[in-house]
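Example 3.
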Amino acid sequence: MLRIQGLTATVDGKEILKGIDLEVPTGEVHAIMGPNGSGKSTLSYVLAGRDGYEVTGGTATFNGVDLLGKQPEERAAMGVFLAFQYPVELPGVGNANFLRTALNAVRRGRGESELDAMQFLKLARARMKELSMPEDMLKRGVNVGFSGGEKKRNEVLQMALLAPKLAILDETDSGLDIDALKVAADGVNALRGPEFSALVITHYQRLLNYIVPDRVHVLMAGRIQRSGGKELALELEASGYGAPQAA
Amino acid sequence: MAAVTETIETVQAATEGTYKWGFSTDIEMDYAPKGLNEDIVRFISAKKQEPAWLLEWRLKAYAMWLKMEEPTWPSVHYPKIDYQDAFYYAAPKEGPKSLDEVDPELLKTYAKLGIPLKEQAFLAGVEGAGDSAADARMPIAVDAVFDSVSVATSYKERLAKDGIIFCSISEAVHEHPELVKQYLGSVVPQGDNFYAALNSAVFTDGSFVYIPKGVRCPMELSTYFRINAKSTGQFERTLIIADEGAVVSYLEGCTAPMRDENQLHAAVVELVALDDASIKYSTVQNWYPGDAQGKGGIYNFVTKRAQCRGKRSKVSWTQVETGSAITWKYPSCVLLGEDSVGEFYSVAITNNYQQADTGTKMIHVGARTKSTIVSKGISAGHGQNTYRGLVRVAPTATNARNFTQCDSLLIGDLCGAHTVPYIENRCLTAKLEHEATTSRIAEDQLFYCRQRGLTQEDAVGLIVNGFCREVLKELPMEFAVEAQKLLQISLEGSVG
Amino acid sequence: MSQVVHTGAEGFLHRYEGLKDRLPGARLPWLAALRARAAESFRAQGFPTRRVEAWHYTDLRPVTQASFDEALTAVEDDLVLPAAHTANRVVFVDGRLRSDLSSWPTMATVASQIGRIEGRVALPDEPMAALNTMLFEDGMLLNIPAGTDAGVLEILSIASESVRPTAFHLRHIVRLHEGARLTVLEVNQGPDGTRYLHNPVWQVEVGEGATFTHARLQQEGALAFQLGSIYATVAAGGTYDNFTLNAGGRLVRNEIHATLTGTGAACHMNGAQLLGGGQHADTTTFLDHAAPGCASRQTYKTVLTGKSRGVFQGKILVRQAAQQTDGYQMNQALLLSPDAEMDSKPQLEIYADDVKCSHGATVGELDADQLFYLRARGIDEATARSMLVRAFLQEAVEGIADEALRGALEAAVEGWWERQA
């Protein structure tokens, strides 16, 4: 389970997270909704360990292990996966090479054997077929020249291959058409099970039609302002985020 | 192709006599004897009743100059200058007085140039001045430099209320010697380069600005340089100091009569920005460029440099260079203070036989210093346009950033566009980016505009203005309008 | 008898005076005259100092302060050659042909054909080329007849061990007639413990529709100076592809002059500089677009560790006649050490209006976003850095079509990186 208590964080000296309390029990999918600038992406970067996001207080543990003191790759090996809102382009780094290196690094972390090139290709091709991704994407540079939708699919493919225990999806739905959205949702739903949890960060309720969350939280001004069941998302869609802030 | 040829011809026809600032003023002048020697340096100093230390300073500069050689590295070509064949001091006989007593001939001259010296009047566009619509505009304080001397400075009293000093540098030598002594030559030392040494020896006037701590200058300050006398060089010296937290925007304009001879203009501008201070320095350089055959025109050899001494200080240079037969000019920033910022935005046009070798130097010394360079060069006719720039990052400038963009536009196939950047990085965490492109006005762009009803000239003006937009938007509003018109006028006679 | 040590330009001029009657072709009046003119040019210019604009970033004092001897001609049978990359290889040791170590069906060298190449030996203006013209002894002479595909040839130059510093000056002369094709892999190596100067000059003439692919692997010894130049002309529809990997040497200058003389000629110049320790490497290119409708592409990458210093100077000249020129140049440097320094001077000089020319330059350390992305996927920092450095270099290598060539260069990149890590 992911447990966040009193988490505060600054970016460039400015406090963005002002005390986040959140628990995502193992096996559950939670959604975090909120307006732009509320701290949603900051939360995802803090959990993944990006430089420049300084934790000033509070704790975050995953299955009882402290996350915040760990290197990004150590968190990845623990099973934490961040699907980036803006996947980074890596010119010159072949997608296949990248995926295999990452997969084997995570497998090593889990004490599993590494995959050789053939085993990896077989696995990757199977996953790509499920995601309707053309095979030549393996040969291209990571995210280089990919359309917005292709980049997001590439994130979902990585998630499918790395089989994380905790997936954090940072606005994975932005810029996706409905078909791509379904593909992304299917990717998450396929992983759902008693050992998998997810934190789905989104601006819109739309994605939650396809990834039905167990709980919905509203993040505004650096704090979780409300929590509720999946119906909360519909309510927010209808009435907007304004009401609780005014209250 | 036909469309392009036609444009060239149309515009050539229109160009004869497009330099509207080319008249001369008949006024009684006081000259130093022709030529340059130690006595001339003493003569200038005596004329200005300077203190002994300044004469010594000038003589030292002169001694240095004698040992220096004219630089040959710029991509400009001109016959050897005879430094003995010019007047180094020329001033209206009637010395500077209060604004009300300025010679009416001079007032007329400035009115004709569109530069109002009367307070409550305003710097207006190139096309004319003083219309009543101007009343709504911000007032601009003007220092008018005519050949070798400042003839008038407006709004001095109003500015003095805020503790701002705005006067000619000759006056500052007498009224504020401690400031002049402290800062003169502290950014551009006498021996910095050949022209700076010459200027240090014989400078005659220029503007002096001091903005005290925490003061935001309430109006634009500006200096208007006019070369009028024949066979005269202009050597002005400008010094601007922005004390901690001060903010100032300064404008500079220049014109000269049309003459067959080449006249020399060798200025030095020094800017000092202390902690949190900000200086914006804008130039519209419209010296006489010579005629369509390349005869006459000003040789413009200028040293402009800013030191961002303070933390978070900022200096922004914006220049629109349309005039001069030859331009040699690199407004630079030495970024000493941590988090200081240097900017250089430039449009340079060379038409007919004009040559420009211009750019900037950004020297990063302090941590997290940032610089931005945007240069737009337009070559037309037989014009040669060179961007020359240096970005140097010292090991101390951790996390320094530079972004440079140099774009060249060629109009016609007899001109040249050159880009010579020097990028020197000695700091691991610095990040430097440089991009340069060269292009021309495409026929399909012209055709598209004409099909939509624009004339050839308007289409070219539109495209050129679009090309320069990133720079023009940095200019204060009123100057930007003037600059746009100037671009179009400068290109007349060569556009294709 | 007092021993006078001659250094700098004087040392080489002194050597020329002593050797001029014994150099190959000494009895040929045209060649003797040419060498004399070269000596005059070199005497007038000397070794360039940093005051010469073209040498602003490269200080030759380590070269001019040393005194160089002629390499001894002893045939060393215990010489260990690196493995050949191709079936055909010609080997030069200290600038002299070793036919016993070479295999090339139609082998001709400059020295062996010296009586038949009148008018073919050029004297370029630059001082390093003048030095070479004054003292060259041998080099490949490649004359590829029209329509012939001459395949792949490896040219290996090695320096032998010597207590005293030595110097040699290979002169390679290449001509591809109409539609001919040739690929050359040039490998330069030497012992790490010997201080020597290698001053090669290539003359390259690419005929109409011909294609010359020229890959260079510069792995000179750790104390070596290599000051090399290429002078290439490309006729209409011809292509000159140059790839240079600068990995060895103490002080290296790789100067390439290419002139596109006919419509539709093309030139690609790519390269990588892999620098560490106290190495100094300078790549200087001069691309002269003299004819319309030509295209040029340049991509240079420099990776710097230790106290190394990298220099890139690249000039694209577009002459008035060269309308419809398409010129592109990119030079990027990756700093991996706080003590490294990179200086770049990309230059455009353009006199034609209907052209598309651009250049770009970047200098910086590894991209923090990219590093984070890799680490967020579980890849440790060292591996992530290594992946990004190799990816950075990949772009310069990937343009090489010949697989054997690309393999050789990729292996050299890998080898270098492993030694750094």
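The mean pLDDT of chain C is 92. Chain C has two domains: 8-261, 367-421.
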